[in-house]
């Protein structure tokens, strides 16, 4: 299956954000759920092996877009590798919050996730990705993920990871016994690095912070990422005990 979806914002004469474009194709179906909020609704199984999916986001200067999903995404096996390409452009002074529910790698799947985020001067972004290694009681499928952030034409973040190789995943230097991995990119810059059990908050060389976490399940992963996100935007380094 080949499918693409797109959402774009525009600035109204009174300064409000309006969703100016909303285009969908199963399994990527978009529904507007608020003045500047859109949710992904799965209207078909997928991604399946061999699927080529694309999602395009455009945030006009001075506008805001929040994008989430109503449920987790289940990546299923099929003939060949599935691919999801997410391209996002945030105009000057615009704000994007991208926080879908987790992606679950079903046993036997082979998936490629590509994210290309472009930020203009003064743009802000919050981008969370959560990956679950298989359904309950099954091994993880394979996933190759690439996340590129460019700001004002210059590279800000280049990150790539793989999952689903048993020989590598079980290594204490990779995932160990963890069943989930997640990252959050924020344009807010943490004052200094911070580390707690299963989570790290790392200021980037440019204006931004990367929060990375491992966990035994999706609930713990979300808790650890949220702790890191709060730490990244705090006026002072976090000193409170972690909630897990």
Question: What would you say about this model in short?
Answer:
By secondary structure, this protein is mainly beta.
Fold blueprint:
Blueprint: E1 2-11, E2 17-23, E3 28-34, E4 37-42, E5 52-59, E6 64-69, E7 73-75, E8 82-90, E9 95-98, E10 103-105, E11 110-119, E12 124-132, E13 142-151, E14 154-163, H1 166-169, E15 180-186, E16 194-196, E17 199-203, E18 209-215, H2 218-233
Parallel strand pairs: 1-5, 4-6, 5-8, 6-9, 7-10, 8-11, 9-12, 10-12, 11-13
Antiparallel strand pairs: 1-2, 3-4, 12-15, 13-14, 15-18, 16-17, 17-18
Structural description of this entry:
This is Urease accessory protein UreD. GO terms for molecular function: nickel cation binding. InterPro entries: UreD (IPR002669). With about 240 residues, the chain is mainly β. It has two helices and 18 strands. The protein has helices at about 165-170, 220-235, and strands at about 1-10, 15-25, 30-35, 35-40, 50-60, 65-70, 75, 80-90, 95-100, 105, 110-120, 125-130, 140-150, 155-165, 180-185, 195, 200-205, 210-215. The strands form two sheets. Strands 3, 4, 6, 7, 9, 10, 12, 15, 16, 17 and 18 form an eleven-stranded mixed sheet that branches. Strands 2-1-5-8-11-13-14 form a seven-stranded mixed sheet. β1 and β2 (about 15-25) form a beta hairpin.
């Amino acid at each position: 299956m080949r499918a693409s979806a797109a959402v774009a914002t525009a600035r109204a004469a009174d300064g409000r954000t309006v969703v100016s474009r909303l285009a969908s194709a199963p399994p990527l179906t978009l529904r507007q759920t608020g003045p500047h909020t859109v949710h992904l609704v799965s209207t078909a199984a997928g991604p399946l092996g061999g699927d080529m999916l694309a999602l395009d986001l455009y945030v006009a200067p001075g506008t805001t877009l929040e994008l989430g999903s109503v449920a987790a995404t289940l990546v299923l096996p099929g003939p060949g590798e599935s691919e999801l390409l997410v391209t996002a452009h945030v105009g000057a002074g615009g704000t994007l919050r991208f926080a879908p529910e987790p992606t679950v790698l079903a046993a036997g799947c082979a998936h490629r996730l590509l994210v290309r985020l472009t930020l203009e001067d003064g743009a802000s972004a919050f981008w969370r990705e959560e990956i679950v290694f298989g359904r309950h009681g099954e091994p993880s499928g394979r996933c190759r993920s690439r996340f590129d952030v460019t700001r004002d034409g210059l590279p800000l973040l280049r990150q790539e990871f793989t999952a689903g190789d048993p020989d590598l995943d079980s290594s204490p230097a990779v995932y160990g016994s963890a069943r989930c991995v997640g990252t959050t990119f924020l344009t807010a810059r943490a004052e200094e690095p911070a580390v707690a059990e299963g989570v790290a908050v790392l200021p980037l060389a440019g204006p931004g912070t990367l929060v990375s976490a491992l966990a035994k399940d999706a609930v713990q992963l979300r808790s650890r990422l949220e702790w890191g996100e709060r730490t990244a935007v705090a006026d002072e380094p976090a000193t409170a005990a972690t909630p897990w």
